[in-house]
Backbone:
């Protein structure tokens, strides 16, 4: 017990010093405090490095449940959005299911609507669809857009490394994109109310990675395992995407090491996430990063041409800023239309902040409104 107390005190002292140093920057105080508690949690749980991956993950999950309260249940929650949970059995895998949470406006449920598949972040390792930050974000997107939002509970590393999570996300995207009249016995109930004009693939951080990988698969007409399959995608919304750049492609990505950008997810935590998703062997990780299904920055013109247009939301004080900018340039160079939305003074996580609703910054609501507006402008058929 004494050793545990000493460890807590040491972590608190170190992180207080970090916080004091960062107060000079223009990140809002509420995020500075969130950064402090996030880094304290990472340190206490042993996630400040690539060791003890299973222990670090389980400790963090337990601590987050203790501090953040129970998962958010589906339902109306007294608002204008209704949510429900269904189970999908992926094709050819009768021994497991993928849980999906579906959000839709309570009014006009029989009207055909665009479908947005929202993929949560968390470094491929943590977070769930019923965490309050993601439940709130999905409800806000529905309120602002009038779309149907589908959120998959994909498998997480280190128990399920690449490509497990990608397989689950692709299976859900394929189900969501199926025509409403399709008799799909793989799900307890088919998705009703979709307009059948292709899906919007969306996600933040690691979810942004998975969203754009599925969009790339759609462009080349393949599924996760390289088999011929066409998935109709009308747009991609990438919120500060984590693109897992290789050592070669990260040479010009200064934000990953810039001290002014080390908010919420410092380098050591990103390395922990990568080791969980891709394995501890650094050489093997670098080999995997040559695969655009892992690192979209590795995609070439052949894969990118024909991709759906993209809206990319970026945070100025985010270690992932430069890779988001690099990916926007890559898409444009291959003829893909890109709308770039950049938010000054905002850190990683501001789109789905792990804060009480009353402390959400104005930038969070503004980013959701502007992202929906950008998608509507880029895709005339989306009328909301």
Residues:
């Amino acid at each position: 017990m004494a050793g545990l107390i000493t460890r807590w005190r040491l972590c608190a002292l170190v992180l207080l010093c970090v916080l004091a140093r960062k107060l000079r920057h223009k990140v809002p105080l509420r995020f500075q405090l969130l950064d402090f508690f996030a880094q304290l949690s990472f340190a206490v749980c042993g996630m400040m490095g690539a060791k003890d991956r299973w222990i670090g993950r389980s400790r963090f999950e337990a601590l987050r449940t203790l501090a953040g309260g129970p998962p958010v249940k589906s339902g109306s929650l007294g608002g204008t959005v209704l949510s429900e949970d269904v189970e999908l059995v992926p094709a050819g895998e009768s021994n497991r299911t993928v849980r999906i949470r579906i959000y839709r406006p309570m009014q006009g449920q029989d009207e055909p609507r665009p479908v947005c598949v929202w993929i949560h972040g968390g470094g491929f390792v943590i977070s769930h669809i019923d965490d309050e930050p993601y439940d709130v974000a999905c409800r806000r997107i529905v309120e602002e857009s009038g779309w149907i939002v589908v959120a998959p509970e994909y498998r997480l590393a280190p128990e399920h490394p690449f490509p497990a999570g990608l397989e689950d996300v692709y299976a859900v995207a394929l189900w969501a994109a199926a025509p409403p009249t399709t008799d799909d016995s793989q799900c307890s109930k088919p998705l009703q109310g979709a307009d059948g004009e292709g899906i919007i693939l969306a996600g933040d951080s690691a979810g942004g990675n998975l969203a754009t990988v599925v969009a790339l698969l759609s462009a080349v007409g393949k599924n996760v395992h390289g088999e011929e399959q066409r998935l109709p995608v009308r747009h991609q919304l990438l919120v500060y995407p984590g693109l897992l750049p290789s050592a070669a492609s990260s040479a010009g990505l200064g934000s990953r090491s810039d001290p002014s950008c080390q908010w919420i997810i410092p380098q050591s935590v990103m390395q922990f996430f990568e080791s969980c998703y891709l394995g501890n062997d650094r050489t093997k990780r670098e080999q995997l990063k040559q695969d655009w299904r892992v690192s979209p920055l590795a995609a070439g013109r052949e894969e990118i041409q024909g991709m759906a247009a993209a809206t990319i939301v970026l945070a100025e004080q985010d270690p992932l800023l430069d890779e988001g900018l690099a990916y926007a340039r890559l898409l444009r160079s291959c003829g893909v239309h890109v709308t770039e939305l950049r938010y000054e003074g905002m850190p990683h996580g501001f789109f789905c902040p792990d804060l009480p609703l009353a402390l959400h910054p104005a930038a969070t609501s503004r980013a959701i409104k502007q992202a929906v507006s950008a998608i509507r402008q880029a895709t005339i058929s989306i009328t909301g």
User: Anything to note?
Assistant: Residues 1-5, 19-24 have pLDDT under 50 and may be disordered. The radius of gyration is 20 Å.
